[in-house]
Amino acid sequence: MTEEKKDAIPVEKLVKVYLKMNAKLSELKAAFDAEEKSLKDQMVKVKAALLEHCKEHNVESVRTTEGLFYRGVNTRYWTNDWESMGRFVVENNVPELLEKRLHQGNVKQFLESHPDLLPPGLNVDSEYTITVRRK
Prior knowledge:
Blueprint: H1 11-57, E1 61-63, E2 68-70, H2 82-91, H3 104-113
């Protein structure tokens, strides 16, 4: 057993304080989330009214004394068939259709299953963390 410093704060007190702070953060986050949701819901309604104005008046933008608003087109693409999409990407040599990122869980599992096989260019960063839970 190691000796504690005379002026060190007991770990029980540190855990208690940490849990108190965590509870306060949760309370603040819940209040913030509720207010944020309310504002975002209201903003959706205002945007819908502005879009309707553009449609009714057949305009793309409007300048007011308070500011400018304009409409644009936002297009999203996705697939429900990753197997076919993967074949298409390979057959047509278009890897740029995919985003460059690694699936964290799958990479961890791969490395655990193949400890002697390290993918080239792979960077790894690990750090110790502390998790505090109620008793």
